[in-house]
Amino acid sequence: MTEAATNVIPVPRARVQAMKEYHPPLGCRDTLRLDFNENTVACSPKVREVLGRISAGSLTRYPEREPVEAIVAAYLGLASTQVALTNGVDEAIHVLFEAFLEDGDELLLPVPTYTMYEIYASATDARVVSVLAGDDLKFPFERLLAAVTPRTKIIAIANPNSPSGSAATRAQLLEIAARAPQAVLLVDEAYFHFHGETVIDLIGTVPNLIVARTFSKAYGLAGLRLGLLAGPAELMRWVKRVLSPYSVNSLALACLPPALEDAAYIDWYVSEVLTARAEFEAALDQAGVRRWPSQANFVLIEIGAQHKEFTRHMSAAGVLVRDRSSDPGCDGRVRITIGTREQMRQAAFALNEVLATLNMKGGAQ
Predict the structure, then answer these.
(1) Residue 28: which domain range?
(2) Cys-Cys crosslink for 92: which of 86, 98, 281, 309, Cβ 3.0 to 4.6 Å?
């Protein structure tokens, strides 16, 4: 073997080399976790009971996803052919883009929004077309419609959106689907429980509509990585062709039915978060901190030039928050997850202390 040959290494596709890297913030997450929009308490007690009954022998078998998909489909009022469980919504987005985006296609994306849409799309040969929201961060409906072209193949809308907390209306989503019949309209309802509005009932009626859901937020199952896509059977058959048959693990599949059954737990947690959100928003207003109206389990606030120092001081005070300054149109803005009332009172106390430390009392500067 020549010396030159020993120095040669495999080179990935140019698309992969050009992809943005995503590095979630790590560190001491045993403090008050208000940085990832997770359930801040625990999963349902019924889920914990199931986990305690899982035998070591059951882990030697490959997971069987289809029986649980049938349960989820029935819960949603859909057919099994219209539902696919995935390894979190991240996999759902990934396989959808792999199934439908090719060279010359366009992904239409209102921004700021969930980072992984652009990252997964950048691994394909499609072009990402971003539509920037205004300073109010409301859903840019008219500008999005104006950006639709014959090459638009997927329109991805987080509803409610992160990090803004804003939402598109049902009428707006229907208009978008009608104006772009050649495109898949992905409505990502990760924060559905805190918003209370959905279009999942339109699956099969609107031929290009696909809805994503997650069990990482209200259900408190983020560590099990469990999401779903729901759409017309004609579209879902192609998604399932790309999807690995074993990507959803056995523990997640065992825990999902009891999580769905425990409606009382979900009702309690969502009610607690909505009450806490109203209290925390009032505390922000009293502190003179600008915020954006939110339909989700988080709130976006304006901190300004001291956003890094603010985030660091909040962490030192035992409260993790998320600096979103790198998002389009979000310079100086920080997102704070909403937990329980007790947790948000702790967060409000820390916030006021940090604002005073940074000489920002009376509002961000």
Answers:
(1) 3-41+264-357
(2) 86
| 133's tokens | 């929201």
CA distances from 57 to 52, 54, 60, 145, 181 (A): 14, 8, 6, 53, 48
Q: Is the dihedral of CA 103, 123, 209, 85 positive or negative?
A: positive
d(CA 32, CA 40): 8
The pLDDT assigned to 279 comes to 98
User: In the predicted model, what is the mean pLDDT of the chain?
Assistant: 94
Compute the distance between CA of residue 9 and CA of residue 295 in angstroms, rounded to an integer: 49
CA dihedral 126, 130, 131, 137 (to 10 degrees): 130
For the chain, list residues with pLDDT below 50.
none
Distance of alpha carbon 207 from the chain centroid: 24
User: How far is 185 from 182, CA to CA, in rounded Å?
Assistant: 9
How confident is the model over 277-289, as pLDDT tens digits? Answer: 999 999 999 999 9
- What the block records as the tokens of 91 is 């996999």
